[in-house]
Write a structure and sequence with these properties.
- The structure is a single chain.
- By secondary structure, this protein is an alpha/beta fold.
- The protein has a single domain, classed as Bacterial phosphonate metabolism protein PhnH (Rossmann fold).
- It is 30% helix and 25% strand.
- It has a seven-stranded mixed sheet with strand order 1-9-8-5-4-2-3. Strands 7-6-10 form a three-stranded antiparallel sheet, with no helix packed on it.
- Helix 3 links the parallel strand 2 and strand 3.
Length: 182
Amino acid sequence: MIYPTYTPDEARDRETFLALMWALSYPGRIHDIGGAAHTHDTFSAIGAALLDLETSFFTPDKTLADELLRSGARHLPASEAAYHFYPALDGAALASITQANIGTMLRPDEGATLIIGCAFASGSTFSLAGPGIQTTQEIRLGGIPARFWGLRERAIRYPLGWDVYLIDHGHVIGLPRTTQVG
């Protein structure tokens, strides 16, 4: 049987999607987003892999919004968007996150996915536990205000909540809503 070959863009999007899938499957492990050397490139690569005509996004970053619109996805208010892209977390970004959809008991899959820029191996140390983690997993993250963790904790009422991808220079860590952060 003959299979069509991937174009370079399709291959990049597939590799990005696989990295995101494995990141949520094994919370706290760092996965490589191939070909994305800078954090901004990583956000664009993730947008290319996840967004299409049937999805929506929110970002406060005008330049990133313009790039993400090329996917055909709709740029919606924070309260309505399926994917949220935050290259940095400041007060305005945290206010937007408070509006992110957590889903409903009938449709928990409607909970937003947050993609957040930060710095790995610096800042505070966190201990992760939950599905996909054998015992506990330690991670160090900088650039994420303590207020974010309180917002996340209040939003998660399993199966409701947000799935989170943390991004640093071509790398991603996944935190599904089932992961406890201490």
